[in-house]
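Suppose you are handed a protein chain with no further information: no name, no annotation, nothing but its sequence. What can you learn? This example shows the usual starting point.
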Amino acid sequence: MKVNDRVTVKTDGGPRRAGNILAVEDFSEGTMYLISLDDYPLGIWFFNELGHEDGIFVEPHDHRVL
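A reasonable first move is to predict its three-dimensional structure. Written in structure tokens, the prediction is:
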């Protein structure tokens, strides 16, 4: 995934939320994504952890999901 891609993010206790990637930072443990959401237009950082399914918070947007 790259800057400007449409994605969904997993948040505590609620449905996945749609947003756009503003920035991407790669680390040895995974990737950080700065995501612009409707109620957080300046962005929130989410981390996708390598090798742990429960540690994946950002996924490509699928119009059928929302």
